[in-house]
Amino acid sequence: MKFEEKIKAIRMRKRGCTYRQILNEVGVSKSTISGWLRDIELTSRQKEKLLQGREISRYAGAKAQQRKRIERTEEIMSNARKELPSLSKNEIFLPGLMLYWAEGAKSNETIKFSNSDPLMIKLMMRWFRDICDVPEEKFRIALHIHELLSRKNAEEYWSKITGVPLNQFQKTFVKPTSLGQRKNILYNGTCIICVFDKSLFRRMHGWKAGFLEKISIN
Fold this sequence. Notes:
This protein is of the alpha+beta class. It has eight helices and four strands, in the order αααααβαβαββα.
């Protein structure tokens, strides 16, 4: 047994040092340190000091992660602005961007576009595929349907419109309604296109920011 190292570790612990501080000074394993120090009791003040140190460390770690996220977001948006000249040559780029700006989700870095018009859903699916390069497996589809207007084959209908298989559909939300009778036998509910990709969300935000800068609106 490394007697001198054990004595040093015990003295450091009694002074209120953390395990990490002791490990940096004493050349043994963490399991050995734990065995040596398991019976050492700290004062209330020492425990409070260690807790504060952990809180400070966690806060510093969280701030570091936040800075990295901000830097990464700025990098993605900057690169997205540079894509505008080439993307603008595609006839559906700007219509899709404006439709998403008007109708799409804009918070929590979540991509969601909802509409009941099948032609608009087709356009946005093409936009996500051709402009955004979304892999097929990343698409998720959700449906919102009024209870009295629901149709049994609504999911099959939207699967055909979107080209997304039924196994990528989320559970359909059926909304209770006070309507007394069927008003529209062609009703198929609202289709919501979902793509969970934070990098793409930031890229799309960069396209919008770049476009607004181009036409001098900010």
